[in-house]
């Protein structure tokens, strides 16, 4: 944004160094204009830096969200594996109970047979 200074005096008063007041005012105006241009460039660089920082922050937020989703998925996988493990244990217990039941029935039949033999 180019800003111009509107008040520049144009009077040709000779100063001690031989320059006129008009020349001094124009030099001052040029120096001020250069300073303004320099500051405008610094401000624009700061705006660009801010935009880069915002972009980086947004990327980091997206990465953080992705990491949180991965953690949720890992937790679900662990819970599923635990559940499957519990299901296997339950199946093993059922198998063991069936086996014991079969053994009890067999033992009962053997006992009944022994009792029948002893009664005979």
UniProtKB/TrEMBL annotation:
Biased composition, class Acidic residues, residue ranges: 14-26
Bias-annotated ranges (Basic and acidic residues): 103-120
Region (Disordered): 1-26, 87-120
Listed name of the protein: Uncharacterized protein
Species of provenance: Octactis speculum
